[in-house]
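Batch job 17 of 40 flagged for manual review because the log was empty.
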Amino acid sequence: MNVYLEAYQPTAEKTLPITATAAFYRGTVKAFESAPLRIADGLDPKSKAVPLRFSLPLERVQPGSYTCQVTVLQPGLKEFAVWRAPASNASRGPRSS
């Protein structure tokens, strides 16, 4: 599954380093979480947006409806943001041996 979003850094002249993770929840149970994605460049000078792209292997996640949560941390400023949206996994789920 691909997840794309943009982090805005409206006052930055260069990219402020950020770290992001993507997780999928079914109710309150975390079904999957990505490895941290570290971004140190990519600031668009006009829009002040930094693209975040996740390519997530969901073979081990059962098919169904989830809540996708992306957490973005800006360690240097000790700030974070959380974005949530519904998501579905229509894959065949875990494969048996």
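Reviewer: the log was empty due to a logging misconfiguration, but the result itself is present. The two ends are 23 Å apart (CA to CA). Unflagging and moving on to job 18.
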